[in-house]
Please model this.
Amino acid sequence: MKRFASPLFAVLITGVSVLAQQKTVTIATVNNPDMIELKKLSPKFEEKNPDIKLNWVITEENTIRQRITTDVSTGSGQFDIVQIGLYETPIFAKRGWLRPMENFPADYDLEDLFKSLRDGLSYQGKLYALPFYGESSMLMYRKDLFDEKGLKMPDQPKYEDIKKFADALTDKAKGVYGITLRGKPGWGENMAFLGTLLNTFGCTWFDMKWTPTIDTPEWKKAITFYIDLMKADGPPGASANGFNENLTLMTSGKAAMWIDATVAGGMLENAKESQVAGKMGYAPSPIEATPNGSHWLWSWAFAIPKAAKQAEAAEKFAVWATSKDYIKLVADDIGWAGVPPGTRKSTYDNPEYQKAPFAAPTLQAMQTADPTNPAIKPVPYTGIQFVGIPEFQSFGTVVGQNISGALAGKSSVDQALKDSQAAVARAVKQAGYPK
Amino acid sequence: MSAVTQEPVAAPVGGPASAEKPNILLALLETPSIIALLLWMIVPLAMTIYFSFIRYSLLNPDISGFAGIENYQFLTEDESFWPAIINTVLLMGAVLIITIVFGTLLAVLYDREFFGKNVATLLVIAPFFVMPTVSALIWKNYIMHPVYGLIAFVLHKLGLPAVDWFGDYPLISIIIIVSWEWLPFAFLILFTSLKSLDQEQKEAASIDGANAFQLFFYIIVPHLQRAIGVVVMIETIFLLSIFAEIYTTTSGGPGHATTNLAFLVYSLGIQQFNVGIASAGGILAVILANIVAYFLVKMLAQNLKGR
Model:
């Protein structure tokens, strides 16, 4: 043993000094398939940067949102990179909790990232997060069922068209429902879709003085339309159906139309998991009184907290993960249909990607969604399917619960709107608005 | 398991001598653990009480300062507050009754040898170890879903219309899910307690001419009373804070049909990272728990008379 003492000691010293120089970057992300793929391909980044070691913290959306918010707001520096959305980024940036993104290599091509995303992830002109994944919402419909009944989808459908189509396509005896929409309560669940419906029907959440404008004729018209449509042409149990349940209904052929996230396109066209692959058509999200805010904008983006310990290494990783090279890497690994959607124009210019039937409507939706102009008239907030203030996570869910209750027949639309108005008024008063 | 069930009793080791003269050395030796327990209990409680009286929002640091009873007012004046209290008590009461009644019946059923008893016992106990979110999702999407669930499939085959469990009977659906999860727990405790019942007593009773029902009500149930007391106390502690099942299935809806106090605190406070409101909700839950515990202990103390 004595013989090995000095070489062992030397190895130990070298080992410790190498470790001491190695920077560990802790990344907190959501467990969506695109992010799982990122983790799978991350050794390529570690090969290129041997002094950086990546440490992954991946859980589902609500848990990671809680952990990230707690870490960033208390400045505890537990994470070096956090994956946050279009909602949190301006709120965090306003509080000074994020580092601006500034050092880009020459070939990064910042302008290639969709302007709507760059604007949504900036605060006072500075970019605070790099978009890894972007989505909007669109209308997905069964082209085969439409052809059967001789129906044609217009280039820009209106909600009244949707009602006509749904009535024609519903065949409850055969178990086919004209349309399925989100009904499960939650600010990111039913309120994400309803936010766009309300916007396009000419509704607003607040007037310029921050008085809630929920108990209004516009809201009543929009919500009554939604509930009547779901009662006549929607599946039973709608008030508990979220994205996943509706995806199952679509892929098993039980519904003819669905308005939801553009990323669903990839899932619907996956022949291994969808019975309707190849039968789908894609159209822009319907409009009504105004095209403003008719389809949402969302992005999961990488940001660096102020208190991050390895900020430089973290920015290197964020730049790599959102670069054109990374997208090509994913394409080589699992094909173009699986690349992170909705971030770069170059992805949509690629002829391989254009083969996907959902690519063109997604591109159009991403380019036209404008969170700074979500409503028919000027409003004091930004955000299409959310109101960009921290309190929205709470009162948005309460309003979602009330509308879900009206959908399930537990209360009238008037009562739901009255209760929502009162709840939102209390919430913003408690938070000190108007400021 | 929470440590709130019993006060640590500083019992002097037997003998009349120690009853006359308190053993100071013993008391001193036990002090560190008692102090640790006391701190463990009181520091979080004191901090929560403090937070409930200030304005403290993680995402909105602009609002700060002493809030008085503002946070409490915000919660109690919410129109879901009293429905939430009622739902909490309903959920708790219904699950208690179901688990204890069926737990007792199952325990009596299993109190004999039969083919496959080991496997059967394992299957009865298994639901308790499935994560609440997983159970809730499976019940919601595989069993109860009105379009592609198992129950809808069976009803369809029988020619009956599907039942929209979470739309029409939301609280009952949650009660079913939670009872299914907690039945194994009640069964386990009652089954173990039943094993300590003297077989000779049962034989003597049946020789005297007692039939099965008389045996059950006059011998088995009284014997199980202490065990039932334990089950009630432990289940109450956990059922007051049921959250995961509600969160994954109905998100407190439709309306506030399945909002209990825990979910209300989440919905109004934690979701918007408002520590003040959430702490106020926590204190209200402590008060509710104490009221419930008081009535339960009184009820059980009467039943355990003489034991």
About this structure: Residues 251 and 274 of chain A are 5 Å apart (CA to CA). Strands of chain A lie at 23-30, 52-59, 81-85, 98-99, 122-123, 126-127, 130-142, 257-261, 280-284, 297-305. The first strand of chain A starts at residue 23 and ends at 30. The radius of gyration of chain A is 24 Å.
